[in-house]
């Protein structure tokens, strides 16, 4: 009986056979998507889940030196946090080691002769702020949309583990702002759709809370952001007690000596002892003709108007006022003409 030859996969695992070609994806695009499967595609190629597509084979890109003052930021930049320390460190690296890898840009369609950054914005800032280099070696990618270039940069940063969750949260909201649905953002980024809501909570924290997070963004995951968001009512002012508390918790957590369990306990304690707003009741306004009263969840208006014309005009104005504020009459409602006098009935009460 003939001997069965060993499998190639086993030889590779044992080290007997070494791959002669790189196994990593090319820098520009993900690996081609197999028929019938869904992959992460660039923005202009994003498809609904379950739809198969073939990515174009990467073409060689022109490499040239570009003046740093001709490079514009990406409006959908995947990174939001750039500290002065980060930029200074990159400037020092460029000064002592030079530029190892090219940055990636695409022509700016709105400003001929200029470019939009796809990947490498920290190096551009280092040169602009510290004057390290006047030009940078760049690969020029043609025909990329803002979403394409942003996704390209996102994939590069994810590969280098250069994102914090605050970066991701801000980026996902920018993508949604272009009209992409949560499903499409999930497909583009590989983040489960149900987790995007937690990233959204982090991105929508008040500015005073985000300022504390930016002191040590690597410590704040999306779970921490979702907990802090529980203290911050929508559109709350910086002076709101919950926002103030969230900022204080974030400041303490940024010191690096607290656990997520501590942060969550702080949130739970504040919510358990949060004072409840008590609605004032009783007559609010009095008039010669009657009163306007708020009592619990009820608003009552009672006026004595003895001129039918004035009463009818006031009723119509009140109906219009209520409709404009979303208080709509029952369908089929009719206006009843009240009698001027009928067995002692107060005429014109409304």
Note down, in words, how this protein is organized:
InterPro entries: Chromosome_partition/occlusion (IPR050336), ParB/Sulfiredoxin_sf (IPR036086), ParB_N (IPR003115). This is Chromosome partitioning protein ParB. It comes from Malikia granosa. One of its GO terms (cellular component) is chromosome. This protein has 350 residues and is α/β, with parallel strands linked by helices. Helix content is 39%, strand content 12%. It is built from twelve helices and eight strands. Strands 1-5-3-4-2 form a five-stranded mixed beta sheet. Strands 6-7-8 form a three-stranded antiparallel beta sheet, with no helix packed on it. Strand 3 and strand 4 form a beta hairpin. The termini are far apart.
Summarize the structure.
The protein has 350 residues and is of the alpha/beta class. Helix content is 39%, strand content 12%.
What is the overall shape? elongated
Radius of gyration: 31 Å
- Determine and state the CATH class of the largest domain: Alpha Beta
State the CATH architecture of the largest domain. Answer: Alpha-Beta Complex
The total tally of domains equals 3
- Write the element-wise H/E pattern from the N-terminal end onward: HEEHEEHEHHHHHHHHEEEH
Strand order of the largest sheet: 1-5-3-4-2
Organism: Malikia granosa
Protein name: Chromosome partitioning protein ParB
Pfam families: ParB_N
GO cellular component, one term: chromosome
